Structure formats: C-alpha cells, structure tokens
Amino acid sequence: MKSETVIASAPAKVILFGEHFVVYGKPAIAVAIDRRVYVKVGIREDRKLYIRSLSLEISGYFQNEKFFLESGKESAEEKFEPIRVVAEKLLEASNKDVGVTIEIDSQIPVAAGLGSSASVAAATATALNHLLNAELSREEIFRVTFEAEKLIHGTPSGIDPAIATYGGAIVYRKDEGFQPMNIEFSVPLIVGDTGLERSTGSLVAHVKQIRNAYPEIVNSIFEAGEKIVEKAVQALKEGDLEVLGRLMLINHGLLFAIGVSHEKLDKLVHAALRAGAYGAKLTGAGGGGCMIAIAPSKLVDQVISSIEQAGGTAFPAKINVEGARIEN
Ligand code: MEV
To answer: Cα(129)–Cα(325) distance, rounded to whole angstroms?
Structure first.
C-alpha cells in the first residue's frame, strides 16, 4: 500500500449527438474535452472516509454508516454519496480496512450537461485503484463509475461514465457498449453555458413521461435521432463541418420537441448561428446547462462573444482528450 498521496484526473464530456435517445437504446456520439476534474487521495490512520470538494466548498466524513458535516451545505451528504460508493467498492476490491481522504478539485461546471459527476467518480476510482493497489481493469473502473452514476441519475445510459473513463471520441449504445472513433481533423467546438443548474434524473423522467403519453410520435423522434447519428459518423470521418452543423440543428429541434430545451438554451443557439456557426444544439440532459456550436475556425471568437452577449458564458473546447489517468 502506498503511503504517499495519489492524484488522478478525468475529462468532462460533450455529447455531440443523441442524448436522451441513447437511454432508449439508440446510438449517441460523445467526446472528451479539455476540462478535467482532479482528485487527490491518501490513506488515513483513522477509519474515516473523509471527502472535501474545493469547488463546491463542502467537506465532511462518513464513519460507521453515518455522515458528519464539517463545512458547507446540508446537501453535502447527498452529493458525497456516490463518492462513498466508489470508495467502498475500491476498499472492498483491495481488501484493505483503512480510512481514506478524497479531495476534489474540478474545472467542470456542475449540473451543466458536461458529465461532472461521472468525471468525479472515474477520477476517484482511478486514484484509489492506484493508492490501494486494487488492480481493477479500466473496464472495472467504468463499472464502478456507472454504479455511482445510477445513484445520482436514476436510469442513466452509461455514456457519461464511458467517456469519463476511456476518453477520446465514442459511439455509444447502451446494449452494445461503445466503439472508439478516430476523428482526424480539428473540430472548432464551442461550449456555451446558460448557468442554469438542472437535474439529469428529472429530465430523463420527463422524456419517459412524454414517451408514455405519445409513444408513436416519440419513437419516431428517436428513430430520426438514430439516422442523425449515422450521418454524423460519416461527416466526422470526412471532416464535413457544414453537414455536422446542419445535423446539430435538426438534433436540437428533436430535443426541443421532447421538451428538454430551455428558453435560454434556444437563445444561445440562435446567438451562435447569428455569429456564423455552422450549427448548434443543447448538449447533455438539457433544461438549462450547456449548448455546443461548431463554427468556421476564424469565427470561433465571434461565436463566443455572441453567446456571451446573449447572457451565457462560453469557451472553445479541444476534443478527443485522454480519459481517466494518474497525474503523479
Ligand atoms: C446525460 O449526459 C445524457 C442523457 O442521455 C442521460 C444518459 O444518457 O444517461 C440525458
């Protein structure tokens, strides 16, 4: 067992196409982007499972099945529960009866559609795996991360844990797992944040409701989503940004139709188009959170200012980055 501290990180993700439909077995395309969460772990002499989130400004510890808040909000226990699950799985796998300290430092906006919860779980599992010599494979790290994600989001597809763990760019299907994609050209991608936090679980539940009410209509929307992904895979191979942009807009329209957009998301999408983007759409669960746009490289700065003038914050994102990894 190592006595030093171990730092691991995992990337944020952007779903380019197919969110929500992926929960119903349709394919989706996700890419890892260059914003990461960093998790530092160390062994403790006591048996406490101590967790501190620098970004959320909360800390506390679990001991004998109870949670003790040290600083921050009352909701800390709920926020830390998935991390507890990850830590316990790793302690169990390593057969070690010790306490651990877990410190989280994140560059990823929370509850914004960029998969921050999966990234925290994947980075925590990777760091503890190394610290405790648990020898879990990457596939097992993915499984543990997925278990934690189920506690937060109800019935997630697994796309967030997959991209946080493996990184790169993937086509994901719930029942078949994922296929890595080679994207050989640079995609000028912009992420715009509405600043509105929302819950993935309740948006997924909303889609379920609307599908129960109008099954034929909503199933056709899912079918259309599948066709979009097929065409997008081709356009990504060919580097055809104009086609990707058009497909993004159609995808946004379908997501609007099932009720997961938001006035502010639509406003940021229009702002991006006005500044010359090829296309734009919400990304992730919607209802607030983030949108993405693809633009000609020379217009990226203009698209960013247009999104900011419309009340969002925006940044250019590099895609295809590495998945969960040890940093020290
Ligand atoms: C959330 O990032 C993506 C959703 O499709 C939910 C999921 O796939 O688990 C909305």
So the answer is: 11
H or E stretch at 87: helix 76-94
pLDDT of residue 94: 96
Instruction: Indicate the pTM of the whole model.
Output: 0.94
Q: Give strand ranges (E) for 81-168.
A: 99-106
CA distance 154 to 200: 9
- Residue spans of beta strands (DSSP E) within 58-149: 58-63, 66-71, 99-106
DSSP character for 167? B
What Å distances lie between residue 13 and 2, 36, 226, CA to CA? Answer: 31, 9, 20
DSSP state letter for 4: S
Residue owning tokens 């439909």: 21
Question: Quick count: other Cβ atoms within 10 Å of Cβ 212?
Answer: 9
Phi, psi of 203 (to 5 degrees): -70, -40
| Atom 2 (ligand 1) nearest CA | 284
Q: How far is CA 288 from CA 86, 128, 135, 312, 315, in A?
A: 28, 33, 39, 11, 17
Residue 161 and residue 122: Cα distance in Å, rounded? Answer: 7
- In the numeric block, the tokens 């410190």 are attached to 103
pLDDT tens column, 68-99: 999 998 788 999 999 999 999 999 999 999 99
Measured distance CA(12)–CA(89) in Å, rounded: 23
CB 102 within 8 A of CB 63: no
Q: For residue 112, how far is its CA from the centre of ligand 1 (angstroms)? A: 12
Dihedral through CA 194, CA 55, CA 168, CA 264, nearest 10? 0
Ligand 1, CB cutoff 6 Å, lining residues: 15, 19-20, 22-23, 115, 153, 156-157, 159-160, 200, 204, 284-285
Annotated catalytic residue 160: yes
Catalytic residue among 97, 160, 266, 301: 160
Phi, psi angle pair for 114, to nearest 5°: -105, 10
At 114, the amino acid letter reads L
> Angle of helix 159-166 relative to helix 116-131, nearest 10 degrees?
50
